[in-house]
Write a structure and sequence with these properties.
Blueprint lengths: L2 H28 L9 H13 L11
Length: 63
Amino acid sequence: MDDRAEREFYRCLVSDASSRALLRIRDILADDTLSDENCFHRIEAIVRLLEDLGIGCGERHDF
């Protein structure tokens, strides 16, 4: 695989993963079962999704 093809492969891979993550975040935010006043459960679900994808969310979430 030449450099251009490899870069395109990784660009598509990242784009696909990003799209799936955004769709999942949208689904979490649209979930009416998470209707607590301060949206804690919605935020928690998004933080967990990001962590599942290997994206750290800082020290404030380590509780």
